[in-house]
Amino acid sequence: MTRGPRLAARAVILRAGRLLIVNAYPGDQSDLWCAPGGGVEKGASLPDNLKREVYEETGLAIRVGAPCLINEFHDPDSGFHQVDLYFRGQVIGTPTSADWTDPEGVVNRRRWVTPDELRSLRFKPDSLIDVAFQPQTAPLYDPLELIVR
To answer: What is the pTM for the complete model shown?
Structure first.
């Protein structure tokens, strides 16, 4: 049975010139960083899915803004294909506890980074830095990238 692409929603959240990124690999098994978010659940809107995912991963409550990026990635060996829809986000609530942990145990680190700090890290998608820190008038489309771990 052939499955279509997996759909995910992600947030581009800036605060004081810094972008929120997460490491979404249990047990520090990768040094790859990305914007918070994840797979969408049927029956819920993309913004509602994104609010849930960001809260689970970071403890932050957000307001979801305009779409800013469509990114695709795939693994030609396994056939895995994912489409990520990125939205601007604004923090409207912070965790009640400083030791917030992802209940799924996937996100193990999160941090706020400047453009220079982000450039020094391994991150995906490649266009994240441009979308986060450059002015834009329309969503960017970042075509199919190979999956990395």
So the answer is: 0.91
Let me know if 46 is exposed, middle or buried by CB neighbors in 10 A (0-12, 13-18, 19+).
Answer: middle
Instruction: Give the model confidence (pLDDT) of 135-145 as tens digits.
Output: 888 898 988 88
CB 57 within 8 A of CB 107: yes
What CA–CA distance (Å, rounded) separates 33 from 47?
22
Residue 24, token pair as written in the block: 């979404």
pLDDT over 90, % of the chain: 66
Coil vs helix vs strand at 132 = helix
The DSSP letter of residue 27 is G
- The type of residue at 42 is K
Beta-bridged to residue 22, according to DSSP, are 34, 110
Distance CA 133, CA 149 (A): 24
Give the residue from 21, 98, 35, 28 showing the smallest Cα distance to 67.
Answer: 35
d(CA 77, CA 141): 24
pLDDT per position as a tens digit, 107-133: 888 999 999 999 999 999 999 999 999
